[in-house]
Amino acid sequence: MYLGSQLDKKAKNAREAFAELYEHYLPKVFRYISYQVGDMDLAEDLTSSVFEKALTRLDSYRSNKASFSTWLMTVARNTVIDHYRVKSRKITVSIEETFDIASKEISPEEKVIKKEELKSLDTYLRELSQQEWEIISLKFGAELNNREIAKMLGLSESNVGTKLYRTIRKLRDKFKE
Amino acid sequence: MEKNKKSNFDKEFSEAIDRMVAGEKVESYADMPDDYQEAIDFAQKLIELKGAPRPSFKAELKDSLLSKLNEMERERPKSNRFWEKLRHIVPQRPMWRAVAASLVVIAVAGGVIWETGVFTQPMTPPSKTLLPPLQQPVMLEVTSVKTTYSLGGETEFISSKTTVVTPLPPQMATTPLETEHWEETVWYSPMSCGKPNLGPEGSVEYNLIWTTGGD
After folding, report:
1. pLDDT of the residue at A99
2. How do the domains of chain B map onto residue ranges?
3. In degrees to the nearest 10, what's the CA dihedral of B178, B182, B185, B188?
4. E strands present in chain B
5. Do B14 and A160 lie within an 8 Å CB cutoff?
6. Residue A177: CB atoms within 10 Å
7. Which end of chain B is more exposed for a tag (fewer CB within 10 A), N or C?
C-alpha cells in the first residue's frame, strides 16, 4: 500500500520515490537485521546490501502479489540467511551495544537498570528457536503485521498470533525467574 | 468453546502488540486473562529494544543508493537507443487528465494488421497483409476503458483506429501521453521489460505503474 501511494500519487520521479521509500523502510530493515545478527557493524553491512538489491530488483516487485514491506523484508530475510550460509550463526556482540537504549531522558540509575534488563533479554532471545526469534524480529524489528509474517514464514495468520503470544510469554517467564 | 476464546485472546493480543509497535499507548485490555495482560506489559520491554541506524550510516547509504539510481537512469538510454528515440517521438502536449496512453511500435520484420483492442487478444483474428518494410516507429494512441484505478488492478486499452504495422514482429513500448520524461513515469514488470515481440495473433500485457501525481 505504501509503495502504491508513493508511486501512484506523490512521487514525481524515481529518485524522489526511492528516497521516500528509503526513509520509511530503512529503520525497519535495520532493526529487523539487528535483531537477527546482534552486531551493529554487520547489521549496517547487511542493511546496505538489502537496499542495493532492492534498488536493482525493484522491477521484479509486483504489487498484486505482496505488499512492498513483505517484499522488502523477504529480501532482508534472504540476505540474512545467505550471510549465515557462509558463516555459522554466532552472535559475538552483545545486543545492548547494538540497540541504542535511546532513553536519553532517563536518569543514570534507571539507565543501569535498563542495561541489566537488556543483558538478560539478550540472553533469553538467544535461547529462542529460530522460528520464535524470526517472529520476534519481524514483529518488533520490521514492524510487520501477523498476515505479513504468516506470508513470509509459510504459517497461518492465527498460528503467528499464537506463536507470538507464546514466545513473549516464554521470554517473560524467563525474565521473572 | 475454550479454543475459540483462546483464539480471540490471541487475536486481541496481536492487535494490542501491533498498536504498541506503531507507537500507540495500549491501556484497555482488562477483559483479557492475566497471562495475556502480563505478556502485553512485557512486550513493552521488547519495544524499548528498538534501535535506530546511526545518522551517518543512514546519510551515507542514501547518497550511495541515489548515486547508483542516477547511474542506472543514465545508463538505460545509452544502452538502449530505442528509449532515446521515443523521447523525440512522444508529443509534448499539455497534460491529458483523462487517462490515455500512447503506444509506440517499432517494426523489425514481417507484417501485421492490428485491430481494436491493442493489449488484449482480438475478437477476430487479424488479417495479414504485405506492405513495404516500415523503418519508422509507428505511434498508436490508445485509451483506457477505466477512468479510475486501484492498485494492482487491470485495465484494457482500446484504439479507435486500425493500425498497420510492418514488418513483423514489431517491438513495443508504452508511455503515458502527458509525460515528458517517460522513462521515469512508466515502470515495467520483468515480463514486459524492454521490447517484447508481438506475432500476428499475439497480445502483450504490460504491468505499468503511473507515477504522475494527483490523479
Report:
1. 53
2. 2-48, 79-210
3. 130
4. 100-107, 112-114, 138-144, 157-158, 163-165, 170-176, 186-187, 209-210
5. yes
6. 6
7. N
Distance of CA A132 to the CA centre of its chain: 13
Closest by CA to B139, choosing from B187, B93, B173, is B173
Q: Cell 500476428 identifies what position?
A: B200
A112 against B61, higher pLDDT:
B61
Q: Residue B27 has what pLDDT?
A: 72
Q: Is A17 on the interface with B (CB under 8 A)?
A: yes
Please, what is the angle between helix A40-57 and helix B55-79, to 10°? 20
pLDDT (0 to 100) of residue A117? 77
Closest-CA residue of B relative to A98 is B51
Which ipTM did the prediction report?
0.78
Q: What is the nearest CA distance from B158 to chain A, expressed in angstroms?
A: 22
Report which of residues B68 and B202 the model is more confident about.
Answer: B68
Convert the pLDDT of each residue in A67-87 to its tens digit. Answer: 888 889 999 999 998 888 776
Q: Which CATH number does the domain A1-93 belong to among 3.30.70.1060, 3.30.1490.110, 1.10.1740.10, 3.30.1360.70? A: 1.10.1740.10
Residue type, B183: E
If pLDDT is split at 50, 70 and 90, which confidence band does B110 have?
very low
Q: What does the alpha-carbon distance between residue B81 and residue B87 come to, in Å, rounded to a whole number?
A: 10
Determine contact: A110 vs chain B, CB below 8 A. Answer: no
Please write the tens of the pLDDT for every residue from A5-56: 444 443 345 677 778 888 989 999 999 998 888 788 899 999 999 999 988 8
In chain A, which residues have their Cβ closer than 8 Å to the Cβ of B72?
55-56
Number of A–B residue contacts, CB under 8 Å: 155
Whether residues B210 and A8 touch (CB distance < 8 A) is answered with: yes
Report which residue type is found at A165: Y
Q: Answer yes or no: are the C-beta atoms of A5 and A11 closer than 8 Å.
A: no
**pTM of the full predicted structure?**
0.57
